[in-house]
Amino acid sequence: MGEFTHLVVVKFKEEVVVDDIMKGLEKLATEIDSVKSFVWGKDIESMEMLRQGFTHALMMTFGTKDDFTAFQAHPNHVEFSATFSAAIEKIVLLDFPVTAVKPITA
Amino acid sequence: MGEFTHLVVVKFKEEVVVDDIMKGLEKLATEIDSVKSFVWGKDIESMEMLRQGFTHALMMTFGTKDDFTAFQAHPNHVEFSATFSAAIEKIVLLDFPVTAVKPITA
Q1: Does residue A24 lie within any of the structural domains?
Q2: For the domain that residue A37 is a member of, what is the CATH number?
């Protein structure tokens, strides 16, 4: 069993202060040890036709799928999920075991 | 300027042999030095409502945005893009500078 990634592609509602959401996510990722890595970004490049209105991508990676399952049930995650859900206009979620062709190195 | 990620979320056409596409992508990522990392995965977890028909995520990361721009113009990429485009039923692309809250380590 290898690493497991939780990928979120999202468009936030217009009135949402994205910085506040990101601060909440950063806190979550920092507090919960099983989050092995957390990176995110805001699209600055792709054509509107190809990004289809989505603006942000968030990727949390865990050492194992079990770590991800535990993360989902963590009270801090459950609490933050309510805030996050209220902020989104649309979302795509994918959860997958990572196949590393060229592994990521720091 | 930091790292730059090219994220592709995709649903392939039913008749497509996904392994062949992935082999093509692996070749591309291996041949082109500016591709710093390449990881991908097939969703095994999220609910259909949340993944909205998308099945695979591909993430290529570059040292800089300029490396990504050069990659896009690389003849091998241009050539493979035609094959890839013909294989997809739907796609979302996001291209973004990476904000690493918990940096990824090998």
Answers
A1: yes
A2: 3.30.70.100
Q: Tens of pLDDT along B12-55?
A: 999 999 999 999 999 999 999 999 999 999 999 877 888 889 99
Question: What residue in A sits closest to B55 (Cα-Cα)?
Answer: A94
Decide if B87 is inside a domain.
Answer: yes
The alpha carbon of residue A87 is apart from the nearest alpha carbon of chain B, in Å, by: 15
Any chain A CB within 8 A of the CB of B99?
yes
The reply to whether B103 falls in a domain is no
Q: Write the CB contacts of B96 (distance below 8 Å, at least 6 apart in sequence).
A: A41, A42, A43, A44, A45, A56, A57, B4, B5, B7
Q: Looking at the complex, does the CB of residue A37 fall below 8 Å from at least one CB of chain B?
A: yes
Cα B75 from Cα B77, distance rounded (Å): 5
Q: What is the pLDDT of residue B92?
A: 95
- Domain count within chain A: 1
